[in-house]
Amino acid sequence: MRHSQVQHILDREFTSAAEGHHTPVMLWGPPGIGKSDLVRQVAEKHRAPVIDLRLSQMEPSDLRGIPFRVGETVEWAVPAMLPDTDRHGEVGILFLDEINAAPPSVSAAAYQLILDRRLGDYQVPQGWAIVAAGNRQGDRAVTYTMPAPLANRFSHFEVEPNLEDWTLWAFSQGIDERLIAFLRFRPDLLFDFDPAHNPTAFPSPKTWEFAHRAMCKFEGALLQGALQACVGEVGAVELMAFLHHLEEMPDVDTIARGESREVPEGIELQYAVAAALVRRAVSAKLEGKSNGMCGHLLDYARALPLREMGVMLVVDLHRNVGPEICQLPQFAEWATEVGDVVLSREA
Asked: What does the alpha-carbon distance between residue 215 and residue 248 come to, in Å, rounded to a whole number?
């Protein structure tokens, strides 16, 4: 299931906790695809806290609490890390990351917490959602087979990397436009992980973010070494070759101002120009000046010889700038020319 779908599910599960309809969620997926980030993004949207418990680093007593004597009986001190309305607020997310990396004795202690939302006398506040995440057994991660009683306490979703969702996130986070263009050009490298080859660095949504940071800090031979450390040798070599081709790019600013419609010959350069133009449209929106620029970009989309490339450019504009581009007269002109392409994509 793609990120945008899982994010919608988590958002609804979060709001349903206060309504009494929440079901604990288990997210499965390979390393580096952003399972933890999905949880944090939902919490940030609602300005709610996330309590991240790594059960793999705990003993059963860490979760259950410490016993102490009160008269002739024994009571349990509730761990301060568990959600509490006075300390943490009435709503939030209790996140059990790497849950299937926890020893069975620890996961057994979590049964009651997950299903009954309590541990002894402790009660999880009603407004708190419970989400867990873990790698699959074939992902070369340290995992235990999830016991059936624990698995039966979750609704299960497998998270898959998706280029469209990653691109939308990347534009919103200021990821280098050249990197976005490269992954548009080579979508197969967004995630390339083969556990049988035992890689130390490999392409994934998370490591491409690391590559963006490397591009902000290094140049030349140092950059290639830094990229290889982030995404592996193949990803680094391919990206460096792509970056070298960008020296032949036309002046993107003149295109954005409507002063030029120069289209480069190479398909990789067209991807780069499209990503650069969307970046400038996003910046113009923040300044309240996007309509004029978007009109120029819609005209440029019509000038692109490969109509699918123009569709990609307009779709990215719509997703990152907003539906107001559909009100521009240039949009109607573009849509008339590419209607058959759009309909075939939807079919």
From this structure: 19
Helix crossing, 329-346 with 290-303: angle to 10°? 50
Backbone φ and ψ of 69, nearest 5°: -85, 135
State the pLDDT at residue 347.
43
Q: Residue 285: pLDDT band by 50, 70, 90 thresholds?
A: confident
Backbone angles phi, psi at 175, to 5 degrees: -65, 140
Whole-model pTM? Answer: 0.82
Signed CA dihedral, 172, 175, 180, 183: sign only: negative
Q: Tokens 């986070």, residue?
A: 173
Angle in degrees, CA 201, 203, 208, rounded to 5: 105
Phi, psi angles (nearest 5°) of residue 89: 110, 170
Domains in the chain, ordered, with CATH?
Answer: 3-158 (3.40.50.300), 163-342 (no CATH)
Using CA atoms, how far residue 167 sits from 125, 178, 204, 282, 319, in Å, is 36, 12, 13, 13, 10
Residues 6+ apart with CB under 8 A from 109: 60, 63, 64, 119
| Residues 345 and 307 sit within 8 Å (Cβ to Cβ) | no
pLDDT tens by residue, 65-92: 777 778 888 777 777 888 999 999 999 9
Instruction: List pLDDT tens digits, range 121-178.
Output: 789 999 999 999 988 766 665 677 888 888 888 999 999 999 999 999 999 999 999 9
Query: Which amino acid type is present at position 117?
Result: R
Q: Which residue has the tokens 């009683």?
A: 149
CA–CA gap between residue 338 and residue 215 (Å, rounded): 36
For every residue of 93-126, DSSP letters joined together read EEEEETGGGS-HHHHHHTHHHHHTSEETTEE--T
Q: How many CB atoms lie within 10 A of CB 96?
A: 25
Ordered DSSP codes for 236-291? HHHHHHHHHHGGG---HHHHHTTS-----SSHHHHHHHHHHHHHHHHHHHHTT-HH
